[in-house]
Write a structure and sequence with these properties.
Blueprint lengths: L8 H13 L1 H25 L8 H10 E3 L3 E3 L2 E3 L2 E3 L16 H10 L9 H29 L1
Antiparallel strand pairs: 1-4, 2-3
Helix pairs in contact: 2-5, 3-4
Organism: Butyricicoccus porcorum
Protein name: HK97 gp10 family phage protein
InterPro entries: HK97-gp10_tail
């Protein structure tokens, strides 16, 4: 944490008021920083999935379709979601638009009757929990330090 010195109490009060007025924007930036850390961990796990060569296109589709939603306000707080969007590149008779990427991700994550499970999302989220908190804390500290100067 930074050390901040003031000559008069009025300056300190004004700066604290400014921190409060910019709290929403600081929160939004911190939330996106944390989401980026988790998203990077999930994408890294996607790249390391043990699928056969015939299924490599699924990994490419999953990696390209994974992302962060735009931020929105919900129940008095801010919210972002991470997930898969769209359809895969291979079209079939059953899936003329392509296999939904969410379905492919779930089949790999949880397994099917013919595919063993490879939990890549759950493990990434669990592993990124600490670094995510640190990234968010670092972003908040940087924003407060800028305001308090």
């Amino acid at each position: 944490m930074a050390t901040i010195r003031f000559k008069r109490g009025d300056d300190y009060i004004l700066k604290l008021e400014r921190v409060g007025s910019e709290a929403d924007e600081t929160t939004r930036r911190a939330l996106y920083e944390g989401a980026k850390v988790v998203a990077d961990a999930v994408k890294n796990n996607i790249r390391n999935l043990p699928l056969c060569d015939a299924e490599k296109y699924i990994l490419r589709d999953l990696e390209e379709s994974f992302g962060i939603t735009p931020m929105r306000s919900d129940r008095g707080g801010w919210e972002v979601k991470l997930g898969f969007d769209g359809y895969g590149s291979r079209k079939t008779k059953k899936y003329p638009r392509g296999l939904p990427n969410q379905l492919a991700a779930r089949a790999i994550e949880s397994g099917t009757s013919f595919r063993p499970k490879h939990p890549f999302v759950r493990t990434a989220v669990n592993a990124a929990r600490g670094p995510c908190r640190e990234a968010m804390k670092r972003q908040i500290d940087e924003d407060i330090e800028k305001i308090m100067k």
